[in-house]
Sequence to fold (860 residues):
Amino acid sequence: MVGGFEQAVLAAMIFVIMLGMGAALTPRDFALAIKRPYAMLIGLVSQYGFLPLIGLGLALALPVADPVKIGIVVMSCMPGGTTSNIFTYFAKGNLALSVLMTINSTIVGVIAIPILVVASLAVLTATGNLEVVVPTQNIVLTLVLLLAPVLIGLALRKWNANVGALVELVGGALGIIFIVLLLVTWVPRNWGFLTETPPVVFLGVISLGLLGFLAGYLFSMALKLGRWNAQTIAMEVGIQNGPLAIAIVVFTFVGPLAPLQQQVLAVPALYSLFIVISATMLTLWFRRTNAADDQKMPNALL
Amino acid sequence: MNMHAAPSGGVTGAIGDIASEAARRFGAKTAYTVVMPNGMYGKLTFEDVDRLSDDFAVYLRERCGLAAGDRVALQTPNCLAFPVAALGILKAGCVLVNTNPLYTADEMERQFADAGISAIVIVDMFADKLADVASRMPLKHIIVSSVSEFMPRAVGGVIRLVQRFWDRSLPPVTIPHERFAAALREGGEIRKARGVTVSGYTAGMGPDALACLQYTGGTTGVSKGAMLTHGNILANIAQGETCFAGNMRPGEEVMLTALPLYHILAFTANFLMFHKAGANNILIPNPRPISNLKRAFENHNITWMTGVNTLFNALNNEFWFAESPPKTLRGAVAGGMALQQAVAERFKAITGADVFEGYGLTETSPIVTFNAPGKARPGSIGLPMGATEVALFDDEGRSVPDGEPGELAVKGPQVMKGYWNKPEETAKAIRAGWFLTGDIATRDADGYLRIVDRKKDMILVSGFNVYPNEVEDVIARHPGVLECAVIGMPDGASGEAVAAYVVPRDGSLTADALREHCKAHLTGYKTPRSVTFRETLPKSNVGKILRKDLRAEVLAGK
Fold:
């Protein structure tokens, strides 16, 4: 799928991007997010409560092959991805909350993912004896790629606001390049999937992302978190950690299950493409609503 | 008191001395920090400002051949070039003509021609308009500065790249000009080579010498240049210092300057008074949208700020400001327009800092009265500054008793010399030594003054005077109201009727609810006859709501 070198380049890019995200924040932003832990709690409930149910519902309802159903279920049990932070940044959302939610769901995932995947598959196939392997190295890597640069970015800005602003600018620019790169390299890499996959599978992976956005948003709005936080939680719940899903499938579907692996992997691969597309559109929309909310100030106060 | 007998209120010297004195006292401390919306910044120390403004003074005098009293326009948003250029112009003995950078070519031409300028310092973003102006009038010396002036090289480069290719706000300058940095280099070289003593340029000038032509619509609407002398401005600074005695720690304060420095309030208070006190001025080139102030508040420990009602109201309504208010803020100064009590109270609730309201005009350099810390009376404009006399006159020019409304008149060392080249306008504004403000005020028994309204904004409802400010203050207290303006509309039955124009905070506000709210707090004839919801209200360059423009808009729409 993705070679070792490419993976290293992507990791390096994410590191620089998250450095920029960190430089866009202050310790106070995190303090404010932590002061209202129910926002994070709502994020977590949406992430590991609603989304797995949506995944299971889709798997049960859609006429797709069993490996695809398994893929959808696995995908729906993933924590939030780092890309959600990048999109939240561009949507002018609550970046600190987004970063904290990604950290939260990744840590909680160590316990939650195996339970949820096994439970969902038990409902789906009536056989609950699958041993789900959550590769700790991926979890650790995700956390390191998230926490370390964010903390360094915070410190850089504190040390010198000019360096912070430059790092933020570079991180932001790289973020756009990263998203474009994901899109343009994805298609040639996975051309086979695109041509061979039945349309109903597309429906499944696209719906998973969109329903995730919707569930996160509606739940947050219902609990009166305000539009700004609701948008942030929507992004977080809708955007899953695709690479982690791939790793889990690779490590779990071994031995007698190995023949399933490639087919199951089609879901995270397709999901990754469409989530970038739909998140980009959502970001543009959120950004517009947030910009329209800017208070009108007298023209010449320049 | 005859103001010409004691023109300076006891002050001596020239404004430029502030720079050299501050450099001596505060030296390598940071005097100015310009902060961009993304947090990028550049700074100048007190020494830098003194040395660079010396260089610029020499450039104007020796290289451009300007003489004392020659007018030099300065047209730039808040940035590091402003203090250097302004102090350089004043140190050269020239007259500073502060100009709004957003002026159109027509407005520029009118102002420059009236002032008879010999040179102009203009920011590159707006220098394209000069080509048009230059085709209609001679412009001898054009010096082009930039918002990124004096910023670290890499940061300045990034800002220019963003301005040029992203904002597309850097049009090419097509007429012959000199870059500000090159002018300073040249001035510096001449200064060293010839051993010029810059203080010599202003040594012979008395406090009566002109310092600024500060253009204003004034009380009659015709744009005219208020002649402010070195003595006027220095006197107003001294008066301000008395008000702040004990509340300004020399060399410790961090002043947020979001209002434009070309406006007299920011010019005298933020720029000169706080420079003298060794404060670090945080210059915001563009506070629009208001979120542009976020990084300045996050990255700098702001202790004081100035603003107009609109600015405080906007900050109150920003979640980032309300959620994590600046911890170091000690107080804020409001001027330029009436401060609504609801806005001041909310600001205090958020930040814990008081908003001290003052009153002043361009013609009075600007401060006339102030609610000094410790002596503030909410709802009033405070007490007259030291050495300032005020009187309230009725239409026949007789003093009115305490509590009765009358036109506010001022005598004091801060009152301008007159309007530039407009003796008849001057005669209308200054009568028998009293400067007539055009504002209706009342006086409490213990001397506190309250502005009732602009004389010309008064609404006459069936013979009763209604002052829009009073009605607006009541409307603004309704939680569903973001902004409002009250004007008089022609009415067959009552002559004029009170009409309210309201920008609601959200969609839930109804006209009936607002009318009920007004009825609960106002007598019948003051209650708005009509309530109209709007998305915006016309505002001036400092955010003052323009009732005159609103009225014209509404009448034109009918």
